[in-house]
Amino acid sequence: MESPEKKPTRVLVVDDEPALLRALEALLRRKEYDVIAVDSPIVATQKLAQEDFDVALLDVKMPDLSGLELLTAVKHRRPEVEVIMMTGHATVETALAAVKAGAYDYLTKPFEDVELVARAVAKAAERKQLFDRNKQLETQLKEKEGTSGDGLVGTSGPMREVVRMIDAVAYSAATVLVNGESGTGKELVARSLHAKSPRRGHPFVALNCGALTETLLESELFGHVKGAFTGAQRDQRGLFDTADGGTIFLDEIGDIPPATQVRLLRVLQEGEIKRVGSAESIHVDVRVIAATHRDLPKLVKAGKFREDLFYRLNVIAIPLPPLRDRIEDVPLLAHHFLRRYAERLGKKVRTVAPEAVELLCSYRWPGNVRELENAIERALVLCRGESITPADLPPAVSGRTAPLIRELPASGEDQAWLTQSYAAAKEHALRRFEKSYVEALMRACDNNISAAARKAGMDRSNFKRVLRKYRGDLETEGGDEGAEGPQSASA
Predict the structure, then answer these.
(1) pTM of the prediction?
(2) What's the distance, CA 199 to chain centroid?
């Protein structure tokens, strides 16, 4: 990931002791800081009015203007400057007053080791860099949201290409097929296409085709008449009918059964639907946007997906890159989710520490943007300071290891593991962990499968497959019809 050219940290040193002033200036210049040293607080205020600084090192006792008064002036004029106070007359009251006025650190003279000063300046400079990066990300987000408002976040080459494609085809009525791994934000692309199209004043409806049985899927899509099937107690409009004049987004289109494929093909060819149980055709004007993480040409070759339907859907293809192929977007996305969830959770966390950002950018993100969103939400819950640190990140991201199982006791059920092969014991342990994990997650999500899948950073259909392993042990039907909720702003 390329980074902009780094400018040297600018440090303002203010002290009325000439010998100490020269020593501090020489020390910091050796550390490759850009140093301005002055012996007058009045001159310091003039410098602050004319030039930019990252760190200010101020003596407390000075003529004309005390260090605390100068600190107040600095914070009033340049609140982003990190200030370190120095004094030979340290008191608790002075230290508290300095911190209250906004000082980053407080050093007592004479210094036991001048390297303490250098380390304090280095930490303050790092904090200032974090502030600058945070401000830069805020600006990028405001510019992005101000121009698009579609929730798509990213300035990398692959994402710029996605946005270019969206802008190019938004005004067309052509069918679009969005290809991408689970968690990359395919629904956001669909919503962006709708928002930039002439249909934006009409409904946008979305459906996960892999989450329903064939009967329920057809009923959801096309509607049904009273008595069409058991439980059909009244006529019901389908989503194509509801979306008339607007856009319908069909996620996981590769999972629809053959009979539904035939009916969908008729809609695309003729612009007509028939409600389940009815012979009457209803004309609809709907733009179809489909999405899948599966290889549709491969399904066509295997005879599992109709070739004619594939070509009808694949009029315009928009490939959505996985997060590992646009790692340069990770800091911006992390800040985006930080801002969103900090507000929701009422947390005063403002930034992600540089070492945490480095870990985020080093991780491969198999769960893509959805996994990153979950990681930031988790980190915010655990964070106790102003910045997310590596300790707040999930073990998979931070590289920390967490034991999946407790230590084997000397007796009881687990003692039987010692008589098994390593592979058998490992399988047993993993199954125990998997069962315990999904049980706890389902309880935490009030038995709502959709919410649990999001928390796990998994696609809903994949999460359901894990649940089915334990269907004899777990009650998984509750919440199966839980609302998916709005797609997170994550691409």
Answers:
(1) 0.60
(2) 29
Instruction: Judge contact between 461 and 252, C-beta under 8 A.
Output: yes
**pLDDT 10s digits, 18-30:** 899 999 999 999 9
> Could you report the per-residue pLDDT of 78-132, keeping only the tens digit for each?
888 999 988 877 677 777 788 888 888 888 888 878 888 999 999 888 888 877 7
Judged against a pLDDT cut of 60, whether residue 401 lies above it is answered with no
Domains of the chain: 10-140 (3.40.50.2300), 157-321 (3.40.50.300), 324-398 (1.10.8.60), 421-485 (1.10.10)
Residue 254: count of CB within 10 angstroms of its CB: 19
With bands split at pLDDT 50, 70 and 90, how would you rate the model's confidence at 400? low
